[in-house]
Amino acid sequence: MKKFSYIKNNTDLLRTKLTKLQYKVTQENFTEKAFENEYWNFYEDGLYVDVCSGEPLFTSRDKFDSGCGWPSFSKPVDMENIKENLDTSHGVIRTEVRSKYANSHLGHVFNDGPAKKGGLRYCINSASIKFIPKDKLKEEGYEEYMYFFD
């Protein structure tokens, strides 16, 4: 699989490119409201990418309804684009998920996902991702990811 060079835009550019919510989530580790976000109940075929850099993160084929009110995925497209950090905020121990290149806060990963899909639940803020529909992958430069939908 071809590797792209993704970069994080500077803060001023991100402030003009992103909505206030996208900026708070990706740059300030904010969590959007459950059940009141764009992708929690969205199931079209396509690819989810980092809203800041375009790094491919998840596919709709790995998305499932966990009942938590945020988009949930069983695995990333490529672990190369994900990094995990210990998060002890809010009095609990969790594993934070960030994009590797843009360092965007995406959400958290938990061990309560579907066993038949590996047992993980990547609980992701809609504000941290952008959806690229399957029929727009080539147009948007993600043609190499079409094989997920064949």
TrEMBL record:
EC annotation from Swiss-Prot or TrEMBL: 1.8.4.12
Q: Which domain of life is it from?
A: Bacteria
- Its top-level enzyme class, in one word, is oxidoreductase
Q: From which residue to which does the signal peptide run?
A: none
What InterPro entries would the database entry show? Answer: Met_Sox_Rdtase_MsrB (IPR028427), Met_Sox_Rdtase_MsrB_dom (IPR002579), Mss4-like_sf (IPR011057)
Q: Which Pfam families does this one have?
A: SelR (PF01641)
* Active-site residue numbers: C123 (nucleophile)
Q: Which reaction(s) does the protein catalyse, per the Swiss-Prot or TrEMBL entry? A: L-methionyl-[protein] + [thioredoxin]-disulfide + H2O = L-methionyl-(R)-S-oxide-[protein] + [thioredoxin]-dithiol
An example Gene Ontology biological process:
protein repair
**Mind telling me which Gene3D superfamilies this protein's record contains?**
Peptide methionine sulfoxide reductase
State if Oxidoreductase is listed as a keyword: yes
Keyword field: Oxidoreductase
| MsrB domain location | 11-134
A GO term for molecular function: peptide-methionine (R)-S-oxide reductase activity
What Gene Ontology cellular-component terms does the record carry? cytoplasm
- SUPFAM superfamilies tied to this protein: Mss4-like
Matching PANTHER family: METHIONINE SULFOXIDE REDUCTASE, PEPTIDE METHIONINE SULFOXIDE REDUCTASE MSRA_MSRB
Q: Which family does it belong to?
A: Belongs to the MsrB Met sulfoxide reductase family.
Full protein name: Peptide methionine sulfoxide reductase MsrB
